[in-house]
Specification:
Blueprint: E1 2-6, E2 15-17, E3 24-29, H1 33-41, H2 46-52, E4 60-64, E5 67-77, E6 83-92, E7 96-101, H3 106-112, H4 123-153, H5 161-193, H6 202-268, H7 282-303
Parallel strand pairs: 3-7
Antiparallel strand pairs: 1-2, 1-3, 4-5, 5-6, 6-7
Helix pairs in contact: 4-5, 4-6, 5-6, 6-7
Length: about 300
């Protein structure tokens, strides 16, 4: 799917075009072979377009044949509640700005439907606006993850299996975010070094530097949250291990206590002579001795904190 979208500073709303003109935003997703052919005719490199169709493409910056290519990744919220990242290629040629993704990105759709402003004639500023929105998406997602983690602190002893799986999913998501943001940070650094490829003005370079700093802060935030998630899981494992150890001590103590009557009844149940076997109150005496020994053993384990 390819859409041609145009909006200048003079326009109040975005306009969808049948044919592109200078300053058009080429909004492409779910690419078909015909779409790839169209994009090639508009000046994009065939090999780079092939990379754009790879869902696991790593963020980077390239400049080839007069076109600047920035691969990045943006957060994706699945219907199942899972979080991950998806690739996005932003390319700037002399006449157009391109965004190419596997599925239609909601935040790009907001620009296309005028819910957010994007002046397509200002290609570099459009790129910076898109990047700023991606960084905001990461920050919003990280804030939500942090809030989800807070509730685990209050019930470390009662974390269910489903919640543990959710905790592991959060750690996986954070690892995905970090693996996406770190190369994006490096790609933006490469853009600053090769700023002539994009004809960055001083104002644009300052915005780009701020974006790079924001991404670096988001990386630090993601790492801190990931460490917190690991600490929560480790604390839960320690508490669970302690509870299991306490339970095993209690069961061991009870087993020993109830083994004493079993031994006594076994001894005095033998068909041979034993002490108290002929006494008139031998049964009561044996029961008293058994209860007394069991009580003393139980008191010993109670002092040790086993029961």
């Amino acid at each position: 799917m390819i859409k041609f979208i145009y909006k200048s500073i003079r326009d109040k709303r975005t306009n969808k075009l049948d044919m592109p003109k200078k300053g058009t935003w080429v909004f492409a997703y779910d690419l078909t072979p015909e779409d790839i052919s169209t994009l090639q005719k508009m000046g994009l490199d065939e090999d780079i377009l092939e990379d754009a169709t790879d869902y696991f493409e790593v963020p980077r910056f390239e400049y080839f044949n007069g076109v600047s290519y920035l691969f990045t990744r943006f957060p994706v919220h699945h219907k199942t509640g899972e979080l991950s990242t998806a690739p996005l290629l932003i390319a700037i040629s002399e006449n157009y700005i391109f965004t190419i993704s596997h599925k239609k990105a909601d935040f790009l759709d907001d620009f296309a439907h005028n819910r957010k402003h994007l002046y397509t004639t200002q290609k570099v500023k459009s790129l910076l606006t898109i990047l700023d929105t991606i960084v905001l998406e990461y920050d919003t997602s990280l804030l939500k993850i942090r809030k989800d983690l807070i509730r685990y602190f209050a019930k470390l002893e009662k974390v269910s299996e489903a919640e543990l799986k959710n905790l592991l999913a959060i750690e996986t998501t954070l690892a995905d975010y970090i693996s996406a943001m770190v190369p994006t940070y490096n790609a933006l650094s490469a853009m600053l070094i090769k700023h002539k490829a994009l004809t960055l003005r001083q104002e644009d370079m300052e915005i780009l530097e701020d974006l790079n700093q924001d991404i670096n802060q988001s990386i630090g935030t993601a790492r801190n949250i990931a460490k917190t998630a690991q600490n929560i899981r480790s604390a839960h494992d320690v508490i669970l291990g302690h509870q299991l150890n306490t339970t095993m001590k209690t069961l061991t103590a009870l087993t020993i206590i109830f083994t004493i009557p079993t031994i006594m009844t076994g001894l005095f149940g033998m068909n041979t002579w034993l002490p108290f076997s002929d006494g008139p109150i031998s049964f009561i005496t044996i029961i008293f001795i058994t209860v007394l020994i069991s009580f003393l053993v139980a008191k010993f384990f109670s002092k040790k904190g086993w029961i």
